[in-house]
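During the second year of the project, the team shifted from modelling isolated chains to modelling whole assemblies. The rationale, set out in the original proposal, was that interfaces cannot be judged from single-chain predictions alone. As a representative example for this report, we include one of the complexes processed in the last quarter. Its constituent sequences, exactly as entered into the pipeline, are reproduced here:
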Amino acid sequence: MTVYDQHMHTLFSPDSSETFEEYLKHTPGMLVTTEHLDFNDHYVDGEDTKLDYQSYNQTIDQLNEKYNNRIRKGIEIGYTKESYNQIQDYLIDKEFDVQLLSVHQNGEYDFLQPIVKEKDVQDVMNDYFPLLLEAVTNFPTANVLAHFDYGIRLFDASVEELQGHETIVKQVLQKVIDKQMAIELNTRSMYQYGNVALYEQMIDWYVVLGGKSVSLGSDAHSTDYYGYHFEDAIALLEKHGISSVTIFEKQQPTQLPSSEMKKER
Ligand SMILES: [Zn+2]
Ligand SMILES: [Zn+2]
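Output from the structure prediction step:
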């Protein structure tokens, strides 16, 4: 299987130590890495996690000469209201093939920090989904809405609990459609954090609203998770009548038939 994994990290993200070369050895296909941009990052005591673009760019350009242009450039933008201007300033003079949009935190803590587990899942949903709606409403240039369930990854939230927030989740999905973005199937959320049923419900709503554009991302931080459970995610999409995924080059979308990924090369 030659996957196109549109969400993954290398040592250009502080929480990964994997090299491009290891990923290149691991897959014969195209690579796109989506490195972190998180201002006031609670994982590093409120410091800014800011991709060193110059070094990233240089490294990829060099590797692309050696490896036949197999690497594309991406960024995962961690949205907060407070950092909106900083994000814009950062992006203004930089080029990426794909921009992922994420909500990782609420200004006080990251939704994967242990403190979140002590809270009630309903309270966390009431906090998280409005932030997600705000991100997708306010953010002008992003291509993919990443891990829609990030805020509740630490809970075993049921489909019924998600359905209690149907209105706002559908508003988020409608924005994704209106802005011609793709929605991400985050396969670590689905198959490592056990949220596959939530994704099935979300895709149901998305398709009924007219959504067609889907991105597949493992959120790998090492080669172990590259293309994680993509076969299962592709089968789930096909069950919902979606037979291609959306990939981006210079932020322009094209459709990649999932049959292409299933081929052995
Ligand atoms: Zn993320
Ligand atoms: Zn990520």
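Residues 20-262 form a domain with the TIM Barrel fold (CATH 3.20.20.140). The longest strand covers residues 31-41.
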